[in-house]
Amino acid sequence: MTVRSLGWPVMVTLGILAAWEAVVGALGVKPVLLPRPTVIAQVLWTKAPLILEHLWPTLYEIALGFLLSVVGGVLVAVLVTYSTIVRKGFYPLIVVSQIVPKVAVAPLLVVWFGLGGTSRLLLAFLIAFFPMVINTATGLTSVDEDFVRMARAYMGSRWQIFTKIRLPHALPLIFGGMKISITLAVIGVVVAEFVAAQRGIGYLIVMANGLLDTPLMMAAITALSVMGLALYGVVAIVERAVIYWQQPTDPARGGFA
Predict the structure, then answer these.
(1) How confident is the prediction for the chain on average, in pLDDT?
(2) 4 exposure class (CB count in 10 Å sphere: 0-12, 13-18, 19+)
(3) CA distance 83 to 105
(4) Which one of 64, 177, 223, 224 has the largest count of C-beta atoms within 10 Å of its C-beta?
């Protein structure tokens, strides 16, 4: 995504904020129901130390849970690709496990692992793990078999076929899974903080809700959204650097970068 392509989203966002400010001001809506964007911005500025204090532990758990899901998802996908036992025995169980709502699992993780960061980390991992497995396995197994047979004809080893053919072919799908996983990791950590936590943005949102401090709640949600967008941007930047041969497409012409 280039600076030029950011023009439309920025203009639309500013237009929505201006309309929000005007409508709320004209109707005289109380801040406890829906604060104006200027009020939220003021809270972000005046209570920045409090928000940052709760933002850092959330960021740490999101990043760690995401990295664990990437490593674990890629490893399981490789096993699914190369092991018949894993593909036939465990892969269906992985798919079935996604039927269980992760929100329902969060209280169990708290009972098993306590109120510390472990339960929140595990929930982020469980939610972000599945897209990595699916996307990576799809990418590794969708290689044209003619390329694989040609490599074998030239005495290519299994490792060489994996590193030179399967992995480069799967990289676009792997990064697609990473983009999904980073957003799900944010959801997983915040949901776990809603259930039981003594710090974090989720805890701050619950605390503000209990105090009927809607401006603080909206400010915390805004900070969380900006952080999630920044993490997504980091993944996109790394994707551009790693998959340097892939030409970006223009969303306005029917594709996504």
Answers:
(1) 82
(2) exposed
(3) 29
(4) 177
Tell me: the pLDDT tens digits for 158-199? Answer: 787 787 888 888 888 999 999 999 999 998 888 888 877 778
At 4-27, the pLDDT tens digits run 666 777 788 888 888 888 988 888
Backbone angles phi, psi at 198, to 5 degrees: -115, 5
Q: State how far the Cα of 201 lies from the Cα of 216, in Å rounded to an integer.
A: 11
- The closest of 215, 70, 58 to 128, measured between CA atoms, is 70
| Global confidence as pTM | 0.82
Whether 124 contacts 62, CB under 8 Å = yes
Residue 138 one-letter amino acid: T
Q: What H or E segment, with its residue span, contains residue 238?
A: helix 214-242
Which value, in Å, is the radius of gyration of the alpha carbons in the chain? 22
pLDDT at 49 exceeding the cut of 50: yes
Name the nearest CA neighbour of 71 among 138, 158, 161, 132.
132
User: In angstroms, rounded to a whole number, what is the distance separating the alpha carbons of residues 185 and 206?
Assistant: 19
Give the whole-angstrom CA distance, residue 55 versus residue 213: 18
Instruction: For residues 41 and 31, give the distance between their C-alpha atoms in angstroms, rounded to a whole number.
Output: 13
Query: Domain segments of the chain: what residues?
Result: 34-243
b/e string for 225-249 if b means 16 or more Cβ within 10 A? eebbeebbeebbeebeeeeeeeeee
> Length of the chain in residues, anyone?
257
What CA–CA distance (Å, rounded) separates 117 from 129? 18
Q: Identify the CATH homologous superfamily for domain 34-243.
A: MetI-like (1.10.3720.10)
